[in-house]
C-alpha cells in the first residue's frame, strides 16, 4: 500500500475515495475487506504520510475527512468484526459501508486529540446525498435497503455535485474554522455524530488496530509519532 512520497508544502488535504462493493464480501489484494481498505485504511495511510509535511506548511493547515451520515447505521462497534469472517451469503455491503464511514469519524477524533497544540486541524463531514454514479453499485441482499438506496440516489432526494461540495469547501477554507478540529459537519454547520463514534474506548481500539495493520507501510518516525512515542 505504501510508497515513498515527497511534497514541499501542503496546507489542506481532503480525503475522499468511496466505494460500495456488491452483495458479496470482497477482499483487497492486501487481504482486507475492500470497503474498509478503500474508504478508511488507505485514507488513514495517506494522512499519516502527509502529516509531517503539513506540520511545517504554515499556521492554518486542515485535514477534511469526507465521511457520511451513513455512519449512524453502523452496528455495535467490535474491533474483532472489522474484517468480515462470516458466511459470504450473509454479508451486508451497506452495513460495512456504514462501518467504514464510522471509522473515519472515529479517526478524526483520535487524530484531533494527537494534533492538539499543532498547526493542523482535522474535521469530518457528511456532504449530503449527492447525485453521482454511486447508486450503480448498491447491491444489498436486504430488498428493503436495496429499494431505499436506489430510491434515495435516484435524483429526487439528492444534491448536485456542486451543492455536495459546499460543506467540504466550507470546512477547508472558511476562516471561521481556523485552528478548530474535532468537529463533524452537516450542511456547513456543526453537527453531532453518533455516541458510538464519540466513544473514546472504541476510538482507541480502532486506532491501535489501524497502526498494527499499517506498521509495515509507515516509516518508523511517523509510526512512533502516531503511537505517541515522540512526545
TrEMBL record:
Gene3D superfamilies, per database record: NAD(P)-binding Rossmann-like Domain
Keyword Oxidoreductase carried by entry: yes
InterPro entries (UniProt xref): NAD(P)-bd_dom_sf, SDR_fam
Record-linked Pfam families: adh_short
Record organism: Sinanodonta woodiana (Chinese pond mussel)
UniProt name for this protein: Uncharacterized protein
Keywords in alphabetical order: Oxidoreductase
UniProt-recorded Gene Ontology molecular function terms: oxidoreductase activity
Lineage top rank: taxon: Eukaryota
Higher taxonomy: Eukaryota, Metazoa, Spiralia, Lophotrochozoa, Mollusca
